[in-house]
Specification:
The structure holds two protein chains of two kinds. Chain A is α/β, with parallel strands linked by helices. In chain A, α2 (65-75) links the parallel β3 (42-45) and β4. The longest helix of chain A has 11 residues, at 65-75. In chain A, 19% of the residues lie in helices and 27% in strands. Chain A has helices spanning 14-22, 65-75, 85-92, 149-152, 205-213; strands at 2-7, 26-31, 42-45, 80-83, 99-101, 109-117, 133-140, 144-146, 156-161, 174-178, 184-187. In chain A, the strands form two sheets. In chain A, strands 2-1-3-4-11-10-9-6-7 form a nine-stranded mixed beta sheet, with helices on both faces. Chain B is built from two helices and three strands; from the N terminus they run βαβαβ. Chain B has a three-stranded antiparallel beta sheet with strand order 2-1-3, with helices on one face. Chain B has helices at 25-33, 61-69, and strands spanning 10-18, 49-55, 75-80. By secondary structure, chain B is an alpha+beta fold. Classes of the chains: A alpha/beta, B alpha+beta. At the A-B interface, loops of A face α1 of B.
């Protein structure tokens, strides 16, 4: 299993994402200026501030050369995971439903959160159980997931903030969603920061282990 | 207006607003700050963006707004002063 971790100017969680992927397989960086995924089996778009978050979060990154390749890969069924800024980029690219808005309470959120797995039918959650609650940190200012009411019924929710803790005002306490086919998943909390007991939780490992458990080409 | 090389050049402004019904925390913060300065009777403060640009072909502006300058899911845009 070979993961590719996308690096934009302003990405800051690429190293942690590489470390997390390497718990489940091999991993390498993919540069934003190359429309080439180097034959990887899965793509992770990590957190940070791609292109300075100018204009809107993710708005400029979505038009980078690597995103052309990621879009083709996703449309062909390849597993793609967007974490935090990566989630924002995938929403802007139209690969995931909705958009991310500034947190309702106007504060930067940086804390450990309880996240419930709602859909274990995606390549990023298939090693987890529905109803399982993960302890994963979140750190964001623009994490309020929003979809207009007329779209909401069709959205495939994958993660929800558990225990009535909706830290940012997301619609229906949604923490992560998938594409209709399930192969593209995005979430605001950071599973790649929860892979070592030294940092308080290893609950993020299951996300990367899930992708590794999917047979290549499946 | 013309560039030194003779090309026509148009100045345009695009106003971008949060869509109606979407809560705007920046607007709320400003609305709550104004009474502290003695400005009362202010409501429904909404904060958006102003984009000013010069361009050769104003016919492209609509497409620019749809594809990049605004996210139609959460924002409305208005082209003014071109």
């Amino acid at each position: 299993m070979r993961f590719g971790v996308v690096q934009f100017p302003g990405t800051c969680d690429d190293r942690d994402a590489l470390l997390a992927c390497r718990q489940a397989g091999e991993a390498e960086l993919l540069w934003h200026g190359d429309a080439d995924l180097r034959g990887v089996d899965a793509v992770v778009i990590p957190g940070g501030f791609s292109y300075g978050d100018y204009l809107r979060v993710g708005a400029i990154a979505r038009f980078s050369p690597v995103m052309e390749a990621v879009t083709a890969f996703a449309r062909a069924g390849g597993p793609v995971l967007g974490i935090c800024n990566g989630f924002q980029v995938l929403c802007e690219a139209g690969l995931l439903p909705g958009a991310l808005l500034p947190n309702l309470e106007r504060r930067f959120i940086c804390r450990q959160l309880a996240i419930e797995v709602v859909d274990a039918g995606t390549p990023w959650t298939c090693a987890l159980a529905e109803g399982q609650v993960l302890s994963i940190p979140a750190k964001h200012t623009t994490g309020r997931w929003y979809a207009p009411p007329e779209l909401l019924g069709d959205v495939r929710v994958v993660f929800r903030y558990a225990r009535d803790a909706n830290p940012n005002g997301s619609t229906d306490a949604v923490a992560g969603v998938a594409s209709a086919a399930g192969n593209v998943v995005g979430l605001m909390p950071h599973p790649e920061h929860a892979i070592d007991a030294l940092r308080g939780s290893v609950d993020g490992l299951g996300v990367f282990a899930s992708a590794a458990a999917v047979p290549a080409g499946a | 207006m013309a560039e030194p090389d003779g090309r026509a050049c148009v100045r345009a402004r695009v106003l971008i607003r949060p869509k109606a019904g979407i809560l705007d925390p920046q607007g709320v913060a400003v609305e709550q700050a104004l009474p502290a300065l003695g400005f009362t009777g202010v409501s429904d403060v909404r904060i958006g963006r102003l984009i000013e640009l010069e361009l050769d072909d104003p016919a492209q502006l609509e497409a620019m707004c749809e594809r990049l300058l605004a996210n139609p899911l959460i924002e409305d845009y208005e082209i003014v002063g071109r």
